[in-house]
Design brief:
The chain has about 260 residues and is an alpha/beta fold. Helices cover about 30% and strands about 30% of the residues.
Length: about 260
């Protein structure tokens, strides 16, 4: 763990956010909310991890039980970065406890559970936000500026590849784990929902957990899109291609390059 001293001189309106789950990605969230001056509580069941975080953030409240966080009236929002299989249950418990919720993708592992959470958040008048971080990435913001420019023309086709070797999941499949990034960016660029959608995949390492999927989407505007995701690929590749009737743009990782069509 990188040793960062937490400065309690950071000011915020309230320190009212709790981060639940402080593993690989959760520690990034802890750091960011601490830097914003909004972090109230770190909740982690692993005693060793929690002890390490306590050294870095000595002024932040520490908890091992999610129920204790939900019972704390000073906590107004929770950030859920636990195993994907727990996202639905923990998000539901937080909403029922009148907390705003930021949950890492995937929101849930079934459509029905996701729809239930959206409905519950609406009934409770609470924020329910999924951590689609790429929508706020400077590269994606620039990409949207490029495709919105009149010189780019009408978008005709989008495709994306998100490929890697490993981190294999045992609960959620590759579609739930990798594809939400690309789906969120494509919907952001087009500002519309697909009329038709299909996804096909295959599993090779674990029964019923797909390692590779190809998703196709068709939109009312006439745009077609496809997404190829895999964690069984010999090298890492992150590529998004947007083809317009005048120009095209290729985004690889955090950079974008343009070419005339």
């Amino acid at each position: 763990m990188r040793k960062e001293l937490y400065s309690n001189t950071t000011k915020a309106v309230d320190r009212n956010i709790a981060v639940i789950g402080c593993g690989y990605w959760g520690q990034n969230l802890v750091r960011n909310f601490a830097e914003l001056g909004a972090l109230h509580t770190i909740c982690e069941s692993n005693a060793e991890t929690l002890s390490q975080l306590a050294e870095v953030y000595p002024h932040i409240n520490q908890e091992t039980k999610f129920e204790q966080v939900l019972a704390n009236k000073e906590v107004r929002g929770v950030v859920i970065s636990t195993q994907a299989v727990l996202h639905y249950t923990m998000a539901k418990q937080a909403l029922e406890a009148d907390k705003d919720v930021f949950v890492e993708k995937p929101l849930s592992l079934t459509v029905a559970e996701g729809e239930e959470l959206v409905k519950l958040a609406d009934e409770k008048d609470k924020i329910l936000m999924v951590g689609h971080l790429l929508e706020y990435h400077p590269g994606i913001i620039k990409l949207k500026e490029i495709v919105n420019d009149d010189q780019f023309g009408k978008i005709n086709y989008i495709y994306s590849n998100r490929l890697n070797l490993g981190r294999f999941r045992t609960e959620e499949n590759i579609l739930w784990s990798f594809a939400p990034h690309d789906i969120s960016v494509i919907l952001l660029l087009l500002n519309e929902m697909p009329q038709e959608l299909s996804a096909h995949g295959g599993y090779y390492l674990r029964q019923d957990v797909d390692d590779i999927t190809i998703t196709t989407m068709s939109f009312r505007s006439g745009v077609k899109a496809h997404i190829f995701v895999s964690w069984l690929h010999p090298y890492k590749e992150q590529k998004l291609v947007v083809i317009g009737d005048r120009k095209m743009v290729v985004s690889t990782g955090v950079t974008s390059t343009r070419a005339n069509s």
